[in-house]
Structure formats: structure tokens, C-alpha cells
Amino acid sequence: xxxxxxxxxxxxxxxxxxxxxxxxxxxPQAPPRPGSAxxxxxxxxxxxxVRMGIVGVGxxxxxxxxxxxxxxxxxxxxxxxxxxxxxxxxxxxLARAGQTAPAEIYAGSDHSFEALAQxxxxxxxxxxxxxxxxxxxxxxxxxxxxxVGVEVPAARTVEECWELVxxxxxTGRHCMQLENCCYGYNEMLVWNMVKAGLFGELIHGGxxxxxxxxxxxxSNEGEGLWRREEHFxxxxxxxPTHGLGPVAHYMDINRxxxxxxxxxxxxxxxSLASYRDTHTAPDDPRRKEKYLCGDQNTSLIRTARxxxxxxxHNVSSPQPYDRINLIAGTKGIFKDYPPLVxxxxxxxxxxxxxxxxKQRFEAPLWTRMGEIARKLGGHGGMDFLMCYRLVExxxxxxxxxxxxxxxxxxxxxGALSEISVAKGSAPLxxxxxxxxxxxxx
Amino acid sequence: xxxxxxxxxxxxxxxxxxxxxxxxxxxPQAPPRPGSAxxxxxxxxxxxxVRMGIVGVGxxxxxxxxxxxxxxxxxxxxxxxxxxxxxxxxxxxLARAGQTAPAEIYAGSDHSFEALAQxxxxxxxxxxxxxxxxxxxxxxxxxxxxxVGVEVPAARTVEECWELVxxxxxTGRHCMQLENCCYGYNEMLVWNMVKAGLFGELIHGGxxxxxxxxxxxxSNEGEGLWRREEHFxxxxxxxPTHGLGPVAHYMDINRxxxxxxxxxxxxxxxSLASYRDTHTAPDDPRRKEKYLCGDQNTSLIRTARxxxxxxxHNVSSPQPYDRINLIAGTKGIFKDYPPLVxxxxxxxxxxxxxxxxKQRFEAPLWTRMGEIARKLGGHGGMDFLMCYRLVExxxxxxxxxxxxxxxxxxxxxGALSEISVAKGSAPLxxxxxxxxxxxxx
Lengths: 441, 441
Prior knowledge:
Two copies of one chain form a homodimer.
Chain A lengths: L2 H23 L24 E6 L3 H11 L4 E8 L2 H13 L7 E4 L4 H7 L5 E4 L6 H10 L3 E4 L7 H14 L3 E3 L7 H11 L6 E9 L3 H4 L12 H4 L7 H10 L8 E8 L4 H9 L17 E7 L4 E7 L11 E4 L2 E4 L4 E4 L8 E2 L4 H4 L2 H13 L5 H15 L7 H19 L5 E2 L12
Parallel strand pairs in A: 1-2, 1-4, 2-3, 4-5, 5-6, 7-10
Antiparallel strand pairs in A: 7-11, 8-9, 8-15, 9-10, 11-12, 12-13, 13-14
């Protein structure tokens, strides 16, 4: 272990303990903070360019750096990471991308991000750090008057969700959760089909993060340095938003409907230990680790309008990648992996390809920007489109596609799943982070 | 409506009210009946031939008649149905199948089955009536010393489950639930793969009955005469066993593991009303019907060994047929519709066809009897194999593949789902119908 790793580990350990204490005492009915003004539908001030800093320039942060750098009118003025070399590497990438002035570097300490957030020439702070530091950094940056874009999951506890909402409302700054999957080609296309009524009245959806991360979790670099530790003391859905975000869009969550009740159940935990025992030496210190998190976690969410969502999480077992991405109603059903659709009256009893629907229902954003998005890569282009849209909203002065209430509600599904599991799969109520505004649409 | 329909409707209405009262008061911890001897693992007395009567000769009963008639050493000596013509039709089919002596007919009344069950020359009574009469007929027949094979779901309430168990134990007669899906080609093949350890330690499974029954439910004949009514006052999983039976086999439920906890959630109910409103005349009396049952019901079951099962039910929405039939462990995953498998280390990140596994893992029963089974049809041959196996067990004097404890546990998933839904998705404990014997294997 080098010094950087040790420092990060200590930070994580402290933060993890603090987070756990929060989870244990978190009430899903935590009262809203007094004296705050809603940011529901609040528009950005329009601007010519978007000046940003990026906190966390590891794997994910570097990918975001590349994508933001490709968006017109973006200036990446500052980079922050505990590890200075990562910032230096980011500077070089920005230079190659054509940025003339080098980004300033903030590095070396767990608190380096503070100086970045205190700059007076930034509009936006992007946060791509380990999960446990998302909220402290986002809150600090908003209090410095910056809008923030925070990686998923934005928050790990219900208290943290409220903290994001409260801070966004107190500061009038947006906290956009960087949920790239909401910008996936199929997701945006299917959302248009939903809006056109092809599936009729919506009844249920399916969402998941099923991704065999075993080799990444046991890697000696990158996410392997911290992500496995999330499995030590947490048991639930650690990563709910990739699947849930798109389904929340289909169902107009926070804009006509809302998550109301959740129950969650976890399986036994055995896959990580099984993998570890066949992939590490007998004297590897990781042999002493205990993994609390059940390999498979499945939650059920009921919305205020009675829709049912199945939400799954499994990053420990051998399986092909799957976000489920299912939406069904009185007139039809779509499910992904592979993308297939069945509409009432189409004839036969088989799913058919989604392809015939592409011409009519492709998202205008994909029609307009799909070519460059695909060229840049980043999960097939969705990453670029997410970055592009955030900048577009800020430049044009619209509300963001995904606001702090979405960040809180989608992240809360994970936090509440842990509490439900700890209570023997007891049903829990979701907080209404919008405080009733979801009904006004 | 003809007289037969009216009679049946009245019976159903009375029985439905009785059933509901049962569900409301049913405790999942209902005490076992005293003085009973377990039938766990109890072997049939071996016999040369199997003499049987069939109660209910509608669509399903006629299919069972055809399949049992094709099994060597079976004598179908008696047929019962409220509607005499159905028995007469059954007689003719038996004659065409080569049965020399005609089956005696018991018809005309809700109590006609009693005289059939009281005959002293029957070994087995097959019950293929509307769900609501399964338990009363099965209990009566066992008390007359007959083994019974009862269609799915065997029971609709937890009290009914206990009644089946108690009666089977008091009489020493077996109550086999006729779960044909346990004899499906893929199900039996995958079970062999599970037993060979290909999926490693099991973690989770998936089971469902997703079947667009709208036209059948609104038919003016067959199941349309009674099955829609199940949706009037019940809200949960009305039909759990087709998906759950095979997964229970994979997981050795009642033979090393058991269902322990369940939570269940239902969506809104809108699909049946929506279908009805576009497929019936404005003055159709069914326009006044209210459907309580949520279109989509999803339950989560945790086993004593920590495995997690997802169990879905939807017969009201447009969708392709799907029983999910998923099993996953530390080394791989199988899911059905279409049948695909992924084993750790196979290379790539895609599911592959189940076909390459057929040579090594095909069930001997299918190798031996598959050709005749496929020729007879009946859900691809599984129906014949189920009938064949029950007769084989009775002739050879082994225990049945599926006993009263399986009938109770699998059916209880449906009954408990209703209670959980009524309690806002509260977690409920499964009764241990085996009274601890599941651990002895």
C-alpha cells in the first residue's frame, strides 16, 4: 500500500463510520429544513460559457473530463484529486483536447477540493470521487455558490439525501445527479414511446444494476481501493440509480407521481468470499474480510399512483450485464437486454425488435448529437450526451433534466433498502423530498 | 346464463366468502393438528395398476384424462362433473383411447364428487375443478382413503394449506399437487445442472406466471365462467405454483431448505377493466364488475438458507408468456424465455444457448419417455410426464415427487402474498408445514 492508498483508506473508514451512524438513526420522515425555498423547476441563469472544476480525476472523473472537454463553450479551469499525478494527467488530456489555458491543480489532501470550490470563477463543480465523499463535497460546493454535478449514487443515507435537498434549497444552486443511463439511446427512445401512449396506462417497471464487478472490486487500483469496502458493513442496494433513473423518467416520478413505499430483501452473501478464496493467496490480508452485503438484493417500490417497480442489485455474482429497463402498461411492454417490445394487438405472442420504432421515436437529442456522441464513446455515447445536456441547460437557462429531488429520491431507494433489509424486509415510506410539488405538474 | 352457470356461480360466491373469512383470520403460525403422523417421505403401497376417478372434466380435466389414459396400467373408472355432458364426452374419449369398460358418471350436483370418492375400488382421485373447491374435494377424498392429485393452486388460504397437511397426515394418504411445470424439459434439465453443481452455491431464483389471460377471463365458457371472479375480492398472487414449483426443486425446498419469509406488493388494478371496456357492449353486466387484484403482483421470498426468490403474477396485461424460471449461484445463472445460460469462465459476457448442455443433463425421464410425451402434447409433453410419474411412483411404491408439504408451501406463497399486500407489504413468516423435517435431509 502506498501513502495515497493509506490516506484514502483512513478517510473512508472514518466517513464510513459516520455514514453508518447516520443510516441507523435516519428517519425516512426527517422534517424539511425551515426557511428554504424550493428549487423545483428553478431555471439556471443563462450564460455564454460554463466554467467548471472537476473533483476526482480517477477513472470516472477522467471520462467525464474528456466528455465535458468535447462540449462547446466549456472551460475546465480546475482539477482536484488526492493524487496529484491524476490531475497532471488530466491537464495533459485537456491540452490535447485543445484547451489553451491549463487547469489549475488542487491535490494532496482530503480537503484539497475546498480551495477549488472557493474559486470565484467557477459555475459548476463536477464530483467523481468515492461515493462516501459525494455529499460533503457537493454541500460544500453549493455553499460556495456553485452548481454541482455529482456522480451516482449522489447520497448513501436518507439524511444525506435531505442534506443535499436542504443545501440546494438554501443556496439556490442545483445539484444534478450525473445519471448517464437516463441519456441512453434506448432509454430516451422508450421514454418517447411512453409519452406517446404506446404502452397505455403504466403499471409496472423493472430496474437493476446487475454487473459482475468481482475483478474490479478485487483490483489493486482504481475502484478496487475503496468500492469493495462498501460491502463490509452495508446490506442492500448499493447502486440503485442506473436502473431506477430511466424508470423514474418513464413514470414521471417527482413530476406527477412519486416513490411512496419500498420493501427490500437481500440474499446470503457468499459470492465475493468465494471469488476471493480462489483468486488470492492464502496469506492475502483480504482473506480476513467479511462481506455483509447480500449478493442479490431485490427491492419493490410502489408509487403514489400505484405503479410497481422491481429494483435489483448484484455486483458479486457471475452474470451478463443487465439494467432490466422494463416498462409495462395496459397496452404493452418493453424490456431491455436485448431491447424487445410487445404491444397489444401486434399479433403473435412474441417480443419483437425495438428497431422498427427507432425512426419515429428516436430522441431528438440523439438525432442531433448521436454521431459525435458515438464517436466519443463513453458507454455508447450516453456520457457525452449527459454532459452536453447539462451544459446546454446552463447556457440556455432552463431547469436541469435531473434535479436535487431526483438525486434524493433515486438515491434514497438505496438508503431505504438497507433499512428495510435490517428490519427484516419491513415496508418503509419514502420521504417526499418535493414536499408535495410532485402533484402540481 | 344457463342453469349450470348459475349453480356454479352461487357455489363460487358462497365458497369465496368463506375463503375470504379464512384468509383474514389465517395465522401463518397456525398450530399443527395433534395426533397426526407425518407423511414426509412416505412410500405408496406398490400396486399393479392404478384405478382412478377424475373430478372436473372441463378443459383441464379432459387434458388430464387424455394423458392418464395414455399411461400403461391406468384404469379411469369414474368421472364427475356438475355438467353431465362433459362426463359423457370424457367417456367417449376413454373409449377412443382403448379403455374397454366405460367410466361411471357422477354428475348434476355440487356434491356428486362425494359418491365418486366413496367408491371402494379407486386408488386415486384427480381433482381439476375451479380452485375454490380443490381443498374440500381433496379432503373428502383423502378421508375416504384415496390418494389425491389436485390441480394448481392446491389451496387458496393458509388454513386450507394446513387442512391439506392435516388430512394427509391423519389419513396417511398422499396429496400430490399436479404441478406439470416441474416436469418441463428445461426445468428437469436445469435441475440436473443444479444438482451437478454447475451454478455453484445457489443465491437466487425467479419464478412467475405472466400470461395474458384476458380473453379467457372474459370468455363465456370454460374458465371464463369462474376464474375472473377470483379477481373480485383477492389481491395478490393468485397462481404461484407454475413458476415456484421448479425453483423450489432447484433449491431443495422442504428437503434441505424451506421458504421462510415473504413480502408482496401489488400494482394498481386497471388492465382488466380497460380490456372489458373495449371488448364488451355498454350494457354488458360485466361492466359493473370491480377488480381488486392488482395487475402485477411481485413477491420476494427468502429461504432459511438465505436464498432469495422473486415471484411474479400478471394475467391481466398484454405480454408474452413467461414463467421466468431463473436460478443463479456463485458459478452461473440460467434464465428461461428463451432458455439461456451463463457460467463463470465460459468467456465473453453474453448468455449462450442451453442446447449444448442437453446431451449431458437431459432428464432420464425425458430421454426415456420424451418421444411419446411430445407426441401426446399437453404443454409440450410435461403433462404426460407428470401423469406418468405419479402412476409410476404409485406402482413402484416410492414416495411421490411432490407431496402435501410441497402443495402447502407452494400454495401458501399465494395465500401469504394476499395477506402481505393487505398489510401494506408487511413481511410474513411461512409456516413450516414439515414441522422441522426439512432439515433432516
